Each structure stands twice: as C-alpha cells, then as structure tokens.
Amino acid sequence: MSDIRMVIGGLFLLYGVILVVAGAFGSAVNLWTGLVMAVFGGTFVAWARLRRL
Fold first, then answer.
1. Cβ(26)–Cβ(36) under 8 Å?
2. Which of 26, 30, 41, 43 sits a CA distance of 20 to 30 A from 49?
3. Are 33 and 23 in contact (CB under 8 A)?
C-alpha cells in the first residue's frame, strides 16, 4: 500500500514543481496551485516513508 502512496505523492510533487516553475514565469494561479500540490505531494511521500518504519 505504501508503494501506491509513494507513486501518487511523487506525481503530485512532480506536477506541483512543474506548475511552480510555470507560475514563476506566468500566471499566479499556477504558482499557488503548484505550491499546494507540491506540499500535498511532499506530505504524501513523507507519510508513505514514515509509515514503513
């Protein structure tokens, strides 16, 4: 189950970073959405990593 959380969290983190980069050069909506997605993805990955212990 934690592998699924790692994949989902990793994808959210990746897309969040892409949106943050796009938001830095364009719309503020992309920046804020990217930040929220990156935090959510990082939380998901941390949860999956800590849950294994």
1. no
2. 30
3. yes
Tokens, residue 34: 């990217």
- The radius of gyration computed from the CA coordinates of the chain, to the nearest angstrom, equals 12
What does the pLDDT read at residue 15?
96
- Cα–Cα dist 29/1, whole Å: 33
Phi, psi of 27 (to 5 degrees): -70, 140
| Contact between 16 and 37 (Cβ < 8 Å) | yes
Residue type, 18: I
Report how far residue 49's alpha carbon sits from residue 22's, in angstroms, rounded to the nearest whole number.
Answer: 28
pLDDT band at 22, cuts 50/70/90?
very high
pLDDT (average), residues 7-23: 93
